[in-house]
Backbone:
């Protein structure tokens, strides 16, 4: 098993522990997006606890902020703060590790979670880099359900207008949201065609839970000039835990002790077999 894949499955165990202890969180989306976050933080982006105040660091925005739990375990694992504190206190009284990203937590650029805002803020950050003649890149991760928000399309137009080739958006395309499939709730049809029509470079990753494919996509995005890039990652909600995969009920499900132990066995089996 390559480093990134192993890391993503180890972090899945942290996510399950956090969800079990807190009786909160969005475990299905966490498990679909964790490979994206792992690849970005461990392979792609120039950002870490040692350079987080450096104006030339890369910027990361989790627009689908309800999956902050996954981001917290990644940031903790990277050394931005004590990971076990985040796992033990997530969503507890007086904890800074609440259900959405917030700037009280080291490593978080913006408060997010009101869906549809992340890409607009990312456009501003990428444009600022151009205006200040800085070479940092801005990365935004969105959910496919979030693509029903109109503000995203304004941001798509602006990014293309200003040729923000230092901006990379990722869509965690797992096909499910809180009340059903994205096609049932608000079909967005072909997102690749939409982004292309708005003047973006588009890279589709057909296995969006494959860290190697994601790393290749982000490397290609760095070298593409003249247009912003959207990486469309076809993921599986609940990936890595058999009874959670492709189940809309796990958008926001309760992880009992029995389910926690069952989920750990699934993840550990993958780690052993690979």
Residues:
């Amino acid at each position: 098993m390559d480093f990134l894949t192993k890391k993503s499955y180890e972090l899945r165990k942290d996510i399950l522990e956090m969800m079990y202890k807190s009786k909160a969180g969005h475990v299905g989306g966490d498990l679909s997006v964790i490979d994206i976050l792992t690849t970005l933080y461990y392979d792609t982006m120039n950002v870490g606890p040692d350079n987080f105040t450096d104006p030339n660091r890369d910027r990361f925005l989790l627009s689908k902020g309800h999956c902050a739990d996954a981001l917290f375990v990644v940031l903790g694992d990277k050394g931005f703060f004590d990971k076990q504190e985040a796992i033990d206190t997530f969503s507890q009284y007086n904890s800074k590790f609440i259900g959405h990203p917030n700037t009280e937590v080291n490593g978080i650029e913006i408060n997010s979670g009101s869906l549809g805002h992340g890409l607009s803020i990312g456009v501003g950050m990428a444009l600022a880099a151009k205006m200040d003649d800085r070479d940092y890149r801005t990365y935004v991760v969105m959910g496919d359900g979030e693509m029903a928000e109109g503000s995203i399309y304004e941001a798509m137009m602006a990014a293309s207008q200003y040729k923000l080739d230092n901006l990379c958006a990722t869509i965690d395309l797992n096909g499910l949201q809180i009340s059903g499939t994205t096609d049932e709730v608000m079909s967005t049809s072909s997102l690749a065609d939409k982004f292309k029509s708005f003047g973006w470079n588009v890279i589709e990753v057909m296995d969006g839970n494959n860290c190697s494919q994601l790393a290749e996509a982000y490397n290609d995005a760095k070298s593409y000039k003249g247009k912003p890039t959207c990486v469309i990652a076809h993921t599986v909600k609940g990936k890595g835990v058999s009874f959670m995969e492709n189940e809309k009920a796990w958008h926001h499900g309760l992880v009992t002790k029995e389910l926690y132990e069952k989920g750990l066995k699934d993840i550990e089996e993958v780690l052993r077999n690979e």
Remarks:
- The longest strand covers residues 167-173.
- The radius of gyration is 17 Å.
- The chain has a mean pLDDT of 95.
- The beta strands are 59-62, 138-143, 167-173, 176-177, 180-181, 201-205, 229-234.
